[in-house]
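Deliverable D4.2, example record:
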Amino acid sequence: MKIELNQGIDVESVRMLFPILSQPVNCNPLIYFDNAATTQKPLQVINALTNYYHNDNANIHRGIHTLAERATVDFEKTRKSAAHFINAHEVEEIIFTKGTTDGINLIAQSYGEKFLKPGDEVLISTMEHHSNIVPWQMVCEKTKSILKVIPINDRGEIILDEFEKLLSERTKIVSLVYISNSLGTINPVKEMITLAHQFGAKVLIDGAQATPHQKIDVTLLNCDFFAFSAHKMYGPTGVGILYGKRALLEAMNPYQGGGDMIKNVTFEKTTYNDIPYKFEAGTPNIAGVIALNEAFQFINTIGLEGIQHHEQALLKYATGLLNEIPGFEPVGTAEHKASVISFNIEGIHPFDLGVLLDAKGIAVRTGHHCTQPVMDRFKIEGTTRASFAVYSTMEEIDLFVQAVQAVVKKLR
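Output generated by the structure prediction step:
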């Protein structure tokens, strides 16, 4: 099976930017297929982290000395890059968080706790990550609201007719994953946002898996909130972005109290800062935010269209080869998928397969992938998941499939 890659991407040159990929693991070349968990970091991101601590280490927004001013300028550059990357209307609509989980919790607590009333309904889907389930369970318990779940079909796709049936005047929040981390399903979020808005509901999109794989335009989507993580898109861990429409952010209460989220503090009363700073209490991960700007530039330089084309070619190639293995059972066969393959091999536990692949230097993820309701839906304990990125290659897939075949032969 031969599939041409996008000629605009020189994958070998891209790989040279990622020092971790050149190391051996268990006496074999590293094949890193756990990109849905976290991507590796290019040199420019690593260098940005080092440069901050080496040359510019100072707190931001508070100092008038040179180091503080340099750090603040670089920190705020990333906010502008983030707004441009997702096409937000205003830079002030960009809030720095610790990651997607932090962003979802912020909305659940700052928006949900303020505006949800007893009997109101929150809709999520069966395929949500635990990070988009547990915060809503918590806030529904506090507010006496009702959590409802949109079902999925056997291919791992949201059943739109059932979603429409669940929508009503009681629906106040819809919180949806754009791309499933465990199934690879790309959900029709634009259509679902439009439907939800017809009933006056606000919509939060979990964009953790979508942001590194396809162009995001929050203005076109017309979502009310959008959360994503730096570490899923070649940036540092511990950094995320939350987008929210200005009017909604201004109506919300602060998520946390402390420094930088205030205008004035007395023992009698505190006046909160303007957005986005109202939601950025305390000293943030300054180095990580600065380095995230380099991740944006890395993706922009290659181009998301080329990245998507490359990853789709890898997905098609790998799926075709794996389907030829006796006992191969794919989990998630949606018509529209990102570069994620979750599967089981009949008679072989995912953990055993993962351990034996690791012995050959191949990193995959095994287990429930923080989506236990998905596993319950398919009546399985978990899966083996291979997920690809811009630096993944056809040759790596060949070695991966050969290794899976060898495991099947050994364990049978």
